[in-house]
Specification:
The complex is a heterodimer of chains A (462) and B (388). With 462 residues, chain A is mainly α. Chain A has 19 helices and no strands. Chain B has a five-stranded parallel sheet, with helices on both faces. Chain B has a two-stranded antiparallel sheet with strand order 1-2. In chain B, strand 6 and strand 7 form a beta hairpin. The chains are: A mainly alpha (462), B alpha/beta (388).
């Protein structure tokens, strides 16, 4: 089910009202039923895949807790192999066949919704149990941990110490939480519908055939894609976090004004935090992290980011995107080690944004060849001279451009406002009539500027 | 002792109250639509009458409707300076088709026109509709079964007894993509025509269309676009330039569909396939004792090819031999439209891709003449319509 669908507009109030009305014993069952319905609304058959992985990891964790020594390692690897096997079969099989020239027939299977997210969440839990965490003995609770509907299909990727602990001692839904949750959802919907979906046609037009448009169009398309993917994914995360919060649960923060990052390392502390921290804790640290010789540290970074790229999609463009960031971080670490003085923040922020935006070229392009065409044409473009022709080539009304730019400005303004008291606190301090006027204006803005054509979230494809 | 995880009922009431306070004005605005006429928030009648989510009657429009108002825009112009306002009358029958039941009290139809939006003809007033024009030319009743295809018509139990003549009308662009004739009839269209539930369902559909919201969005876009053009491009016209999906012709005021201009004419294999499909329907109707005629509407960009800046598309001429082999009766309007356009007749509306009143009149006069003359190669006259 898409958050931006009419289906969800009926689903959410019903689930929220049920959650608030039911007693503490019935609530987990209600949430589990809602989660099953939420997932099955897309394709019921994939519940079998999800259910099988839940059972595998649940019993693997119980077995891990009972054993000592070598069998534990074997059990851990069985769980890893089964989770990665499912991911490999659905997501990477055809890519591997095509890339390695294997003489196997392509499967052409559709990726089950959210497979990359919930396998990582389950895997993180099993590794935690291997490292000494008490396993969850209640199967229903563990199933709800993996299937919790707000974060089931695109995260945030939760840890057992976060969501599972809350499910074990369910929080009491409170008015303040509900208000905060609904505020987060409203901003998330605005980001998705009024910003991300407004920017999408520009990126789509530029990247449909990079040979057919000029360098300025490709630059505009790429910069707009940078904000599109942020608004789209951050919007999704806020809706998920807000929906959970309205029911009393707190999910991990996934974004924190990433385009105000002053370095790449800072960027990855602000962008898709639940995934980058997963890779840090379950891959980078086990590889030795930064407590190894410097050349190994750099190699670790490259491996982690290449795999992070591959996690996003079975394509060399995603691997290139990961390596782009890996190489950028290696350069940052090398510069810091060599004692190169850092430029002032007002230089570092736009530089970081430019580097990240250049990386999006790999992420958005249909092939590596297309990506290099984009770089080549942008580098050779006379941007100011080409801009009018570029805007005409998008074949979109001027009003669309105005709305898109207004959405970008609003996104940046709200991120900037976080550095002070925050927009929410400022609004909360207003007298009641002004506060309500703000709320009505916010809903009206969402309704007037949003695009309600149920465009899927970008990260659903992963 | 109270369970610490149980919800405080005062919290629940407070939340429900605040949610109602926030959503209330927006819900009231949506419901307020019901107190207003159906076309209160639109520039185009078709938007006001077309059922979107609730379709409990066979036709595409709300049933039992009579509207008379200025209709601002054809499909290609949008809210631009090229849009033309004109008065239109819309009447629908109790089944939701654009047909005035008063024009045929005996419900005794000599012919049915089945086909696409060229028959629905949103920018034409009721008297200029193809069915009305043909009825006038024949002096008999004609039913417009649109915008639907032959499969739908043949599966409609209300037309189990087909009229003596069935004319299938499609845009020229649809020739290469006609639907596959269905051996097993598709599900019959809904036939819920009792007035009270129909009125309730119309009300529900109107609310679900969010007309006030859509109108406000469109107004905001229109005003922003105008400001953008004025400030950024220095354009000071009172309207704005053509939309993305339309292209101005060489005269600067006749619009063409970008999709149509980019379309590639169907090859011989597709024409043979189209003829095969039409042959299936022709034989099905012959088995019911009805005569079948295929009438494709020549493409605007082909008839006005000089204005469109392209070569004429000869698809309709190439289609003839394929249809003849299948025994399908065919009315090719292309030569007549080409000659009339060369004489300066305005067969198409400048801001719409469908035929205009003059094009409809010319086509229906030609069709009536064919029907009066009988089948080509025979001396028979059309049969009198059965009396109900």
């Amino acid at each position: 089910m898409l958050f931006n669908s009419l289906h969800f507009a009926f689903f959410f109030p019903v689930v929220l009202a049920g959650h608030w009305s039911l007693g503490p014993k019935a609530r987990p069952w209600w949430l589990l039923a809602a989660s099953v319905y939420f997932y099955a609304a897309y394709r019921p058959a994939y519940l079998l895949v999800l259910g099988a992985l839940i059972l595998v990891d649940y019993y693997a964790a119980l077995a891990l807790a009972r054993r000592r020594g070598t069998p534990r390692v074997a059990l851990l690897w069985v769980s890893v192999a089964l989770n990665m096997g499912a991911l490999g079969l659905f997501k990477y099989h055809d890519f591997a066949v095509a890339s390695l020239g294997l003489s196997l027939p392509p499967l052409g299977w559709e990726l089950p919704l959210g497979l990359s997210f919930h396998t990582f969440q389950s895997l993180g839990y099993v590794i935690d149990v291997y490292r000494g965490r008490e396993p969850e003995r209640d199967l229903r609770r563990y199933a709800l941990f993996v299937m919790f509907w707000p974060q089931l299909v695109a995260g945030p990727i939760e840890r057992a110490s976060g969501l599972l602990a809350q499910l074990a001692a369910p929080p009491r839904p409170a008015y303040a939480d509900a208000v905060r949750g609904l505020q987060l959802m409203a901003w998330g919907f605005f980001l998705k519908l009024a910003v991300g979906d407004r920017l999408a046609p520009y990126a789509s037009a530029a990247y449909a055939d990079p040979r057919a448009v000029n360098g300025a169009a490709l630059l505009v398309g790429t910069v707009f894609f940078a904000f599109q993917i942020y608004a789209d994914f951050c919007g999704y995360s806020l809706i998920a976090i807000g929906a959970a919060r309205a029911m009393g649960y707190r999910l991990a923060v996934n974004f924190s004004a990433p385009y105000f990052a002053a370095s790449l390392a800072d960027f990855w502390r602000r962008w898709h935090v639940s995934l980058s921290s997963w890779f840090r804790d379950y891959l980078y640290f086990p590889l030795g992290g930064s407590r190894v010789p410097f050349h190994r540290e750099l190699l670790n970074l490259l491996v982690v980011f290449a795999l992070s790229g591959l996690w996003h999609g079975a394509s060399w463009t995603f691997v290139a995107w990961g390596l782009w960031h890996g190489l950028g971080l290696c350069a940052e670490r090398a510069a810091a080690r060599a004692g190169v003085p850092a430029p002032p923040r007002w230089v570092r922020v736009p530089l970081t944004f430019a580097f990240v935006t250049a990386g999006w070229v790999f992420f958005r392009a249909a092939s590596l060849e297309d990506a290099f065409i984009v770089f080549f044409k942008v580098a050779r473009a006379d941007l100011l001279a080409e801009l009018p022709a570029a805007l005409r080539s998008f074949d979109l009304p001027g009003a669309e451009l105005v709305f898109a730019l207004a959405g970008v400005a609003a996104t940046l303004a709200v991120d900037l406002a976080r550095r002070g008291a925050g927009l929410r606190e400022r609004v909360a301090r207003l007298p009641a009539p002004a506060r309500w006027a703000f709320y009505y204006a916010a809903v009206a803005a969402l309704l007037l500027l949003g695009r309600f054509d149920e465009r899927p979230f970008i990260y659903f494809q992963f | 002792m109270r369970d610490p995880s149980s919800t405080s009922s005062s919290d629940g009431r407070r939340l429900a109250g605040k949610a109602a306070l926030l959503a209330g004005p927006f819900l009231l605005a949506a419901l307020g639509e019901l107190a207003l006429p159906p076309d209160a928030f639109t520039w185009r009648v078709v938007e006001a009458v077309k059922a979107v989510r609730v379709r409990a009657w066979p036709g595409m429009a709300y049933p039992g409707l009579r509207l008379a108002r200025p209709d601002e825009i054809g499909e290609l112009a949008g809210p631009t300076r090229l849009a033309r306002r004109r008065p239109v009358v819309w009447v629908t029958d109790e089944r939701g088709f654009r047909h005035d039941p008063a024009s045929c009290p005996g419900r005794d139809y000599a012919a049915a026109l089945v086909g696409d939006s060229n028959l629905w003809a949103s920018v034409l007033t009721q008297d200029d509709l193809p069915s009305a024009r043909l009825a006038k030319a024949l002096g008999a009743c004609v039913y417009p079964y649109s915008p639907f295809d032959m499969n739908r018509f043949l599966s409609d139990p209300a037309w189990a007894r087909t009229p003596p003549v069935v004319v299938y009308v499609t845009a020229q662009g649809a020739v290469g993509g006609l639907p596959e004739p269905q051996r097993d009839p598709p599900p019959a269209p809904p036939a819920w025509t009792r007035p009270l539930p129909a009125r309730a369902l119309i009300a529900l559909d109107r609310v679900l269309k969010f007309p006030l919201l859509r109108f406000a969005q469109a107004e905001l876009t229109r005003r922003t676009e105008r400001a953008y053009r004025r400030l950024v491009l220095g354009y000071t016209g009172d309207r704005v330039e053509p939309l993305g999906f339309s292209r101005p012709g060489r005269d600067g005021s006749t619009l063409f569909s970008a999709h149509e201009l980019a379309a590639i004419p169907p090859d011989d294999a597709r024409l043979a396939d189209a003829a095969r499909k039409l042959g299936v329907w022709s034989r099905a109707l012959a088995a019911r004792g009805s005569r079948f005629i295929y009438l494709p509407v020549p493409a605007k960009s082909s008839v006005l090819h000089r204005l469109a800046g392209r070569e004429p598309d000869l698809t309709l001429t190439r289609l003839g031999p394929f249809l003849a082999r299948e025994g399908v009766e065919y009315l090719d309007l292309w030569p007549e439209f080409r000659d009339a356009a060369a004489r300066g007749e305005s067969l198409y509306e400048p801001d719409d891709n469908h035929w205009g009143p003059a094009g409809v009149a010319r086509a229906m006069d030609r069709l009536a003449a064919r029907l009066r003359a009988g089948r080509p190669g025979t001396a028979s006259r059309p049969r009198a319509p059965p009396r109900s």
